[in-house]
Design goal:
The protein is an all-alpha fold. Helices cover 77% and strands 0% of the residues. The C terminus is likely disordered.
Length: 493
């Protein structure tokens, strides 16, 4: 029964991908769903992309290990969504660009898209890879496949439905995944585990008062969660690309706030499930196995299939969002840089043939997706890989991106310098400390980038008036009908 439910779910994902293919008629429709998602669709897809395997399986595992304090990982992600939505989402939505790097070019008047795109692409690619590995573990348990086969089969499903309709397919599947996750976690897993464990009194008696404390996981760990994940959410291409899909600044702001509140509740629910599981089954060897073990041993057959499908849904929604983000950055920002380095002339994009343009985007999604499957099949230490990507993203790009959004005196020269110094300082500190999981690299990168950014901005000429004029028009919404000028991508071969 459980396997049947998972198979039906996977078949539905492919069906929605095919349906979305009919709506992806040009680049705007394919990459950002035509910038016309309303409140429900936008909230669903934003919540789905940020709540992945780390928030679901990982969040329950942290609750199992640290009690209620295990909620802080997902709470830090929720804080990022809330801050982005309240402070920046409306402004970002009005820019009418496709990538974070496109925002840098529009704001500073310099073509920093290649350099920033490389960093962003590394981050989104590793996010795709880690999500692929995560849902492959579920396939491994359910179907008995070996690890490589699980990675390939699960990865191909995500690649197929993502490639067919782009953001429309991903949005439709995200809505389904959002509903399944909500039912699986809030309606089934949380009440069943708490009831089985004897409720608040029973759990407190079995695990003790300390499991109900908010600081059990450690202050340093909590601070690091907020530095890495909250700040990473603020500037991630996978998150910004969802903001670009909103039909209005109001939808981007309040739909995002709703998604943030949902994530907050999701984090608390996951920790409570893990806490109850620690009272019921104190001998589970790995915290990553807690979610699946609880689903199988606590819930009746059939309901456990829905809960396992919720875990797969969480991982697939993150993987598909990161996949299209990687492909978008690769085509818009990185490949043109590669073409320039090798002295190749980039032909102007023929916008009179939107179908050909969509085929080009689809090809990038397929190629990037296959690359991510190969990496997922080969890589072992996924936590370290994702930590490196997040640290470089925050250390190298946070200051120039947020600085450009909030400080008028910020200059392009300062943005380039901060990017270079922050990235190098982050990587160098990893080598000096000798531990990529340490907290120091991201802190050193952030402080170095901030000092260089402020000092260079103050000692260089302000951003040209004509550049700021275009920027201000976009931010204020006076240039709503303007789209980012298309850049011709280098051929993939």
């Amino acid at each position: 029964m459980d396997i049947t439910i998972i198979l039906i779910y996977l078949g539905a994902m492919l069906a929605f991908g095919w349906w979305g293919k009919r709506r992806a008629s040009n680049s705007s429709e394919y990459l950002v769903a035509g910038r016309r998602l309303g409140g429900f669709l936008y909230t669903s897809t934003m919540a789905a992309v940020v709540i992945g395997g780390a928030s679901t399986v990982g969040g329950v595992g942290l609750g199992y290990k640290y009690g209620l304090s295990g909620m802080w990982l997902v709470v830090s992600i929720a804080a990022g969504v809330l801050l982005l939505s309240l402070l920046f989402a409306a402004r970002i939505q009005r820019l009418k660009v496709y990538t974070v790097s496109g925002m840098l070019k529009l704001r500073y008047g310099i073509d920093a898209t290649g350099a920033s795109g490389l960093v962003m692409m590394a981050y989104t690619l590793m996010l795709t890879v880690t999500s692929t590995i995560a849902y492959a573990t579920i396939f491994n348990v359910l179907f008995g496949f070996d690890r490589t086969l699980s990675v390939v089969l699960g990865g191909l499903i995500v690649v197929v439905y993502s490639a067919m309709g782009g953001m429309w397919s991903i949005t439709l599947t995200d809505v389904v995944q959002f509903v399944i996750k909500t039912i699986g976690v809030f309606v089934l897993l949380l009440p069943f585990t708490w009831s089985k464990a004897g409720g608040y009194a029973g759990i407190k008696e079995r695990v003790g008062e300390q499991a109900l404390g908010l600081g059990t996981i450690g202050t340093g760990t909590i601070v690091t969660f907020f530095v890495v994940y909250t700040l990473g959410i603020l500037i991630g291409q996978d998150i910004w690309q969802r903001v670009f899909t909103a039909k209005s600044p109001e939808v981007a702001r309040w739909g995002g706030v709703t998604a943030g509140v949902y994530c907050l509740l999701y984090g608390v629910a996951g920790a409570l499930i893990g806490l109850a599981a620690s009272a019921l089954m104190p001998d589970i060897g790995s915290s990553d196995d807690v979610y699946a073990d609880v689903a199988v041993h606590v819930l009746p057959v059939g309901l456990s299939g829905i809960v396992l499908a919720a875990a797969v849904a969480a991982m697939m929604s993150t993987a598909s969002g990161a996949l299209i983000a990687t492909a978008t950055v690769a085509r818009q920002d990185v490949l043109p840089l590669v073409a320039q380095i090798f002295g190749r002339t980039r032909p102007e994009l023929d916008t009179s043939d939107p179908e050909a343009d969509v085929r080009g985007n689809r090809l990038y999604v397929i190629v990037i997706g296959l690359v991510s499957i190969v990496i997922a099949a080969l890589i072992n230490d996924i936590v370290s890989a994702l930590t490196i990507a997040y640290d470089i993203l925050v250390g190298g790009l946070l200051v120039p991106i947020l600085g450009g959004l909030v400080w008028k005196r910020a200059t392009g020269t300062a943005a380039m310098a901060a990017m270079a110094v922050g990235t190098v300082a982050t990587i160098a500190t990893m080598f000096v400390v000798g531990d990529v999981m340490a907290n120091e690299p991201v802190y050193v990168g952030l402080v170095s980038a901030l000092v260089v950014f402020v000092a260079t901005s103050l000692f260089t000429e302000p951003t040209p008036a004509n550049v700021m004029s275009v920027w201000n028009a976009r931010v204020s919404g006076k240039a709503e009908d303007e789209e980012e000028p298309e850049r011709a991508p280098a051929p993939i071969a």
